[in-house]
Each structure stands twice: as C-alpha cells, then as structure tokens.
Write the structure tokens for this entry.
Amino acid sequence: MTADDAAALDARDPLAPFAAEFHHPVDPAGRRTIYLCGHSLGLQPRAAAACIEQELAIWRDRAVLGHHDGPRAWMRYHERFASPLGELCGAMPTEVVAMNSLTVNLHLLLVSFFRPTPARNRILIEQPAFPSDRYAVVSQLAFHGLDASAHLVEVAPRPGEECLRTEDLLAAIERNRAHLALVLLPGVQYLTGQCLEVAPLAAAARAAGARIGLDLAHAIGNTPLRLHDWDVDFAVWCSYKYLNGGPGAIGGAFVHERHARRVDLPRFAGWWGHDPDTRFAMPADFTPIAGAEGWQLSNPPVLAAAPLLASLEILRRAGLARLREKSLALTGFLRRSLAQALPRDSLEILTPSEPAAHGCQLSLRLRADSRRVVERLTAAGVVADWREPDVLRLAPAPAYNSFSDVRRAVTALAAAVRS
Ligand SMILES: *Cc1c(COP(=O)(O)O)cnc(C)c1O
C-alpha cells in the first residue's frame, strides 16, 4: 500500500472532513501525532470546550437558576442523551440513561439483576475479563456471601486460540443451566477486539433461566448494537472511548423495556431516579421513573456530560452506518498494509477477520518485544497502546482517522520492528 493508495482512499471518503472537527494531539516537538488510541480515550471534539463554557457561563451568570432556566435546564440535562444513546444502542430512548461511570453502573445493575437463590447463584463471565468487571462481580458474589471459586464461571479461549468461541460460551451456559443466575459479557472484548455474537448468547442465557448483561465499553460507538431486539436485560458503558466524551465522562446504562415498571426489582435508589413530577415535593417514599432513568441516583455531572453532547452530535451527522462502513474499510486497509509491510512471521493478528466479529481495533502480537516497539512508535509520532502481557492495540477510529494515518502508522511499525 503506497501513500498514493491511502490518499486515493481518503479522497473518496465521505467522512474525511470530520477529522477536522477534532483536536489531534501533538508530540513534544509540536507535530501532529497519528492517534490510534480511540479504544482507550477518544479525541476531543473542537466543539467540546464551547459546550462546557456555555454551562460555566450559566453557572456564573444564573447560578441556581440554571437548574430551571430555559430549554437547557440542568434539571433535565440527562434527558438530552436519551435519543442519541438510544440510537447508538438500538434501544428506545426510555431504555437508556446517561449517568455515573461504567463500574458504578455495573454495580447498580448487578444489585437489581444479580439476585442469587440457593439454587441459582452463579455468574458466567469471559476470561480474561477487564479487571474492573471481574472485581465488580467477585465483590457482588462476596456481598451475597458467595465465593468466586464456586460461583464464578469463567470461559476462556481454547488452548492455542485467542478468541472466544460462541459454541464454547453456549456450552458453558448449558452446563451451568440449573445454577446460572447471570451471564455478563462484553460487546467487544477489550484485549482481542473480538465482537461477540450477542443474539444467540442472550437467547441461550434467557432460555437457561438466567439474566444477561453486557459491558459495552469497547462496543458503543464502534459496532452495531440491537440491545432491545437482542433482548438483553441490561448493559453499561463508559463514554470516553469511541464516544469521545472526555476523561471521566458521564457513563451510561440500558435496562430493557420489560423491566421498566418492575417495582419488585430491588435497586439502590436516589432522588434522581424518582418521578420528576413529585421529586421536589420531597416525598418520603421512592417512586421510580419507569425505564432506565429510574436507576439514577444523583443529579448529573453537567460539566462531565457537556462534551459528550458535542461528540454525539458529530456522530449523528456522520451517521452510524457510514461510520461502520468506514471502520471496516480502515481495518481492512490496516490488515493489508501490515501483510505487505511486515514479514509474515513477525506478527500475529489476534482479532478475528470476519467483519461481524470485530470493530475498529486490531490487536497484534509481535515476535519483537512489543513494549519496546510501542516506545519506538511513540518516538515516531504514533500513539498506540500496549497491554499486558504482549498485545499491541491499534484502533483507527472512523470519525477522525484517515487511511493515510493507517499507512503512516504501519510504516512506522515496520521500521520499529526491524530496528
Ligand atoms: C474501559 C473499561 C472499563 C472502565 O471502567 P470505568 O468504571 O469507566 O473506569 C471497564 N470495563 C471495561 C471492559 C472497559 O473496557
């Protein structure tokens, strides 16, 4: 793949102009870097600062009146996310809510959806799960007096393989059929970039009498989601990866409509989950809002939410279908460029190649010391990331990366591997 090939693809890319709507980081010498780390922290939309400044101005000029004034009243701030998040999730606006952060939301929804009984008390997760997710489920088991060694079912790739097989997950659900309370899986696995086949897994979990939740940290804004139709019970995500909401941005959650009015589900309640019509009458008893909003605890962190509005607006204009189409073209180009530029035996691509089985990210295992390679890449102005034990993750994000970015990164990687 030559620079001309990449330039020709960029020239034909209808989303190319969107790159200019983001700040691209620079190296210490002030040169624009090639940023392939959107799976970790998405770039800052140029409009983000104005979104925050508007809220700062309202706080400065109106103070408490900002809660009630005008169409952007902070009182209803979280409601502005329902429609764009619903679209990203394949969900009804009432099934999603912007709130808290990922691990907090996971705990809140586990409180409602992990209800072990003497017979049904196991949680099934993937291995290796993201540490925070594993800490959350192990601590929830302990909270119910259950030990992970007996009650946590971990399904790993087969020996010698990198990715999970749907058939193995289905078999594990079947094997634990009588004891399974909850299946918790990623939409996209953080280490390998594998996109799981949620629909059959959700159907199997529900047929087994278990609940199913998803961690969408690496999936939202990346791969097509149909949470409502897949019939998953709940999902949680953070907004600082492919949603470009900024560090520590407000996270989100999905609760399926069939649970919207279930007052029998135990939950940890707070006033922001209470019916807004009577919230300020300060009643003693809690009446949850029907839908995902009923799981809110507190009034939303407006300054940690404002940049997300800027990003969601960009994603809306770019269009999810066009973003996905470009994403597949970028990873395809990345694969072909790697095959051409690097010796065949110098690397292994861990991410599955079928389009439905991956998103933006390709995970590589290099024969060379990948930590050193990442250091050389950084010196060459390419921002990639390295994960224990030996995985290099590259994620060209369709909202702001170009085919030329991919080509330059591969050229730098080839040089780093050779030196
Ligand atoms: C990024 C990520 C998290 C981060 O959790 P926070 O609570 O937002 O800090 C959790 N789980 C997975 C799978 C992730 O990829």
Observations:
- DSSP finds 14 helices and 13 strands in the chain.
- The longest helix spans residues 320-341.
- The mean pLDDT is 96.
- Residues 177 and 300 are 39 Å apart (CA to CA).
